[in-house]
Amino acid sequence: MTAEQGGFRYIGCRRRPKEDRRFVAGSGRYVADIVLPGMLHVALVTSPHPAARIVAIDAAAALRLPGVRAVLTGDDLAAAVEPMMSGLDIPKMRRYPLAHGVVRYVGEWVVAVVAESRALAEDAAELVEVEYAALPFVIDPEAALRPDAPPVHVDHGSNLMYRRQFVWGPVEQDFSAAPHKIAYRARWHRSATVPIETFGVLAQWNPAAQLLDVWASIQMPKYPDQLARALRLSGSAVRVHFDVDVGGSYGVKRGLKHSILAGHLARKLGAPVRLIEDRLDNMRGGDAQGPDRIFDVEMAFDGDGIVRAMKMRALDDVGAYAGRAPLQLGKPIGAIVGPYRIKSVQYEPISVTTNKTPEEAVRGFGQSPTNYAIETGMDLIARKLGLDRIELRRRNLIRKDEFPYTIPSGSAYDSGDYHAVLDKVLAAAGWEALVKRRDAARAQGRFAGIGISCCLEPSGGNSTFEPLFNPKNETTTWMESCQVKVDLTGAIVASMATSSSGQGHETLVATVIGEILERDPDTIRVVHADSLGALPSNSPVGSRMAIMLGGAAAGAAKKIKAQLVLIAAHNLGAAPEACRYAEGGVSAGNPAKTLSWEHLVDIAHRKFHLLPPGQEPGLQAAHVWEVPGGGALPGPDGRVQMYPCYAFESHVVYAELDRVTGQVALRAYFVGHDCGVMINPDIVHGMTYGGIAHGIGAALYERFEYDGNGQLLSGSFMDYLIPSSHEVPDITIVDHCTPSPLTTFGQKGSGEAGYLGAPAAIASAVNDALAPLGLHIAAVPMTVGALGDLLATKDHAK
Amino acid sequence: MSQHRVDLTVNGKPRSASVPARLTLVDFLRETLNLTGTHTGCEHGVCGACTVLLDGEPVRSCLLFAVQADGAQIVTVEGLAPDAEGLSVLQDSFCELHALQCGFCTSGMLIAAHALLTRDTDPSEEKIREAIGGNLCRCTGYKQIVEAIALAARRLKGANEPAPQRSGHDG
Amino acid sequence: MKAVDFDYWRPADLAETCALLSEGGGDAKIIAGGQTLVPLLAMRLARPALLIDINRVAELQGIAENGGVVEIRACTRQARALADPMVGAKLPLLAKALSFVGHEQTRNRGTVGGSLANADPAAEIGLAALALDAEMSLVSAKGARTVPVGQFFVSPMETALAPEECLAAVRFPAWREAGRIGTGFQETSIRRSDFALAAAAVHLVLDQSGRCARIAVSLGGAGAKSVRVAAIEQALTGGRLGDGEITASVAQVHDGIEAVTDIHASAAHRRRIAGALVARAIAEARDEALAGQA
Predict the structure, then answer these.
(1) H helices of A32-128, where?
(2) Interface of chain B against chain C, CB under 8 Å?
(3) Is A33 touching B (CB cutoff 8 A)?
(4) DSSP class of A197
(5) Residue A649 maps to which CATH number?
(6) C108–B43: do the CB atoms touch at under 8 Å?
(7) What is the pLDDT of residues C106-125, one digit of tens each?
(8) Predicted structure pTM score
(9) I want to staple A504 with a disulfide (CB 3.0 to 4.6 A). Which of A553, A599, A683, B102 is the partner?
């Protein structure tokens, strides 16, 4: 099957991803699969209180149990390690892997027990006695902001971790001038992408080499560095093995506290130490919950539905500790107006602590809740004006001739043709037929609705929200690397500098290198370097790898190609510009003479006497490059370029709603997707289907629910409900390609596709179904319970 | 600590061990027999990552103790391929249609699908979704999995499905 | 999540099972299919000193009919019961209920007796048993006794089983009324195969004239216990089960339906669903009887 986009040889073709084979054979190598002799296991003693002072810990009985090697308290640990960093400038908020002095949420890790097996460690953990003195606590985020609310971090003084009001453009003026306004609240309750594999880490200290080896189920920028720093080790004393298969992450696998704990214990005990979260550990104490947001939004618009200005207040409840998660209020600034031509924006992000499990980065890093908030407004405007929801969007979407388009907060959108994608998905969905289907259902007394969303997927990972939210953190480098070599046998090996969790990076790199060198990607091996051998990387976050790793691999491959041409030119007596490269061989002259790949490789590796003077022997190259558009610090008003490339998705969903039970059935699902050039379509489509499944979960089923005492009520898979094959419908994707001018092949990122637009579209469908009853819901998840009670308010009017 | 002898057949090979009563079948397979292809995602019987065949039927191996499987025939993902270098038609179909991403739920999916195709040679999409309804996946949204199972069914029936091109050498 | 350490024994027969239960005091626990028990063990909510594995006790396997009574031995797999032609023919309500139980993987191990002994208020098998006036056969070292299903379920997760007793079998007496049998089973859960928010099981007989000669309606999932809804049964017996009649009888009891609130649904919503499902199940059973299927 040949590529439709841009006439590529391998890019865009349907090719079997390289990774798949080992997984279907059961030969994946996940952290829990790795066994080291003498390995010890960790179990945790956790807090039953949302807030309490730790009065005393008695581990005598635990230590007496045969097979138990050590018990570690928060005091022990805090003396030996540095506190974990936050993305904000909040030095009085200190965070350690084990609670130090006080516990701040139910499930917080208090004591670590190490034993010869996990079962024994759990037996011993039950014998540890901890005496607590309960303290006041706060669970609700709005209550946490009241002056009388007990601060989660007493030294910090309040629960306010961050607040700033950004004003871009003449907002007040635009509001005054607009004939119409709406104001609404949209609530995104706490959920997360909860991978099926929990977080795990294995650490081994080698005293002879003074080296800590670490294997982890990790997806995190600057993990080796932060781990080394916390353990007071040089970066070169920590070797993180990135060739561990990660069983899904979608943002959340940042187990720094697990790793610090395991690393410290490994050194202290002189034995390898393994910490694998079980599911209960993970849900309550894994610190991997997701955005928990209250949006208060106002939109100012004209009679024809053109939205002039927007005010958005986003309050996010980060839980008991603020790590990187508050920055999820910052990333959406890079697409704060969505795909629309809204000219002025006031944005007020507020990050607040409560006595709940801490949040971590979740797929999209805050963009999906923000898209949900924006799209909720668009549907409300359409309803208010009696305008068709599609027409309203058409009028507001940025037009294809307006790119690059700079939004009020300073980011330029690189390219797009939103109207074309919208047209494609409407055609694929058969919009008119869906409307008829819905109306026919209504005529029979049933409830059905069609939902629409138009959303952006910023990609590329230029994370300027870091210095934006913390001016002391002047980070502007967001690079990625790839090393490529051709060995003496002519085999190509590429080395990537980070872990993968199902995104098909090995296939990505092999395809890109194969494209440049015109060699079969199936013959190109891709390895994951460890952190000592790796060049710098910022890990797969922010939908950045197709762009950044793709670009790095391409850059390295181009250097190799150039080396080959130089060798050939030198040996053919031709100028390099007069040489022709084809599938690894190089030709020159008339009549043409060709030097084959094998011949050129041989010269490079063995025949120094035939090498151009000054050229390095061998055939290898590295490419490290900065994110396009990167390198700038925010201006005083906060304007700055965030992610470079903007993919676009438009969802159309047909849903039926049971009037009595409140159950929602998704009967038809279509999405139009434009992420520029797709390097491997099956991989992109796969992540999009998966993203939609995540979105279905967030929209209808998943919630980390707490009671008034800070107890997590949905702490296992019995109550935290993940969509199965019954809840995810068949999905049709229609692709469009607007290449990015900023990347090697025109590719944009797509790792967050589907998730960013699905909750908005499903909410749109449910509200369309509720409309005949005059009902509206602006909170997700829209559970059976929530919809049931909402529907019941109209029972008397049945 | 109560230790018990178990003798069972795993992937066609007789295996024996002395195990504590509380050792689950999944932990036995993974840790005692070093067959790490079967995974644990929840240890409370919901996610299905631990699915294996016990006497020909798919079961959650986290909900069985190894001692209970004494005398049983167990098949894990490692036992699906015809030989060390090959893949079954089902496994190959998963590769052909990219029915996996991170691979963590994949072993359980393959076992559940294998069990389905053993008793139903022409399953409808509904039947396929039912067969994998107890296996959670967070990566794929299930579509490519359903398509791969349907492809495998067609190929196994010998319908005129062109043999997909095998990838050469894998990384 | 690893279970506490326990001892394990596989008794050869029922007598040995009972002897072990007697000796064990309250610290011995029977394991059948394990689909409910093992998660409790993993979470350390169950902490037995001895696990008695009855999966290979031959006396506890099998389905048989004797003089109109269908007996299912306690350790019969749910999958086997679901596939059994006698269950399909003689206990169609149970067959319907079984199709809602869990997933294929859980039915391959889970047992009919295990589900009953677990007394989960949302459990489908118990609901059908309640509608069918089943009788539970309990045995111990001291002997055997029969407990009607209504007395067997005491409260959520608690039955009339004494610590030294083992559930040996469940018996379903045949309905002797002349006429056509109809069954209805309706369940609402959040995802397919989740615990039911509410479930209704109906078994009825329409006589020659199309009147309801007998009807049993049981409701589960909404409240702490599965219940028979006697008021509806009384209101509808002798009638033609028109939609209006059904709606009226349900409305009468609606506010009295016992229901719990949890994170998944409010009590009010469970009550609403319960009422709707009872009505749907009665209509389903009526239509089935009218169509002559049973």
Answers:
(1) 60-64, 74-80, 118-127
(2) 1-2, 4, 20-22, 24, 43-45, 48, 51, 54, 57-60, 62-65, 67-68, 112, 115, 130-131, 133-134
(3) yes
(4) S
(5) 3.30.365.10
(6) no
(7) 999 999 999 999 988 789 99
(8) 0.97
(9) A683
